[in-house]
Design brief:
mainly alpha, 0% strand, globular, disordered C terminus
């Protein structure tokens, strides 16, 4: 019979292409949902600045209420995020239990060796989420999103210092573009009248 000169690897290549395409689509979906989450967090977790009330019965107009202070905005955002965490704690363990019972994915407690790393990761994730919410409350989703992208060149610097890895010229160029994008967002905000900066700044 006729032998495939590729050694039967054509099907594997097609599977890899499909997996890569699916992964790229999931990345785009994740980025979209993350952007929606940040915008909704800004809208619903931060109370709007109070508007002036109408005149009273005697015709006098009461003084307008002061806008929320940065501390009030931060506390409201943290409270909102806390309720989200409580919801996740009460609800999101159910799919894990179902997958464990159905045999889709076995749930195992961390081993004594991995427990410190799990606790460290949970602590860092909690700190990141809290700081992210505070940043959104005090600035804007656009500013925070561009700021979080700075993790890319920062990770490259840490890898170089800690692990001794050398960055390729393409990686350095990409990191430089990320930094320029962050500076560009700041300059755009300054030239447009500090639209996304809070009034207390």
């Amino acid at each position: 019979g006729h032998l495939d000169p590729r050694g039967g690897g054509g099907g594997s290549a097609d599977v890899d292409k499909n997996s890569n395409f699916l992964g790229e689509m999931l990345v785009l979906l994740s980025a979209f949902l993350y952007a929606v989450y940040e915008v909704l967090l800004k809208i619903f977790s931060i109370p709007p600045e109070p508007s002036e009330s109408g005149p009273s019965k005697d015709g006098s107009r009461p003084p307008p209420l002061p806008p929320p202070t940065p501390l009030q905005s931060a506390l409201d955002a943290c409270a909102f995020t806390g309720w989200m965490g409580a919801f996740n704690l009460c609800i999101l363990w159910i799919p894990i239990l179902v997958m464990h019972i159905k045999g889709v994915h076995a749930f195992e407690l961390p081993t004594p060796d991995s427990l410190p790393l799990v606790l460290l990761d949970a602590t860092l994730e909690g700190a990141f989420g809290t700081i992210l919410v505070l940043a959104i409350a005090l600035s804007s989703p656009l500013f925070v999103t561009v700021g979080t992208v700075l993790a890319i060149p920062t990770s490259a610097v840490i890898d170089t210092l800690v692990n001794g890895l050398s960055c390729q010229p393409q990686s350095l160029a990409g990191g430089g573009m990320v930094v320029l994008g962050f500076l560009g967002v700041n300059l755009a905000g300054l030239t447009e009248g500090l639209e996304y900066w809070p009034s207390w700044l």
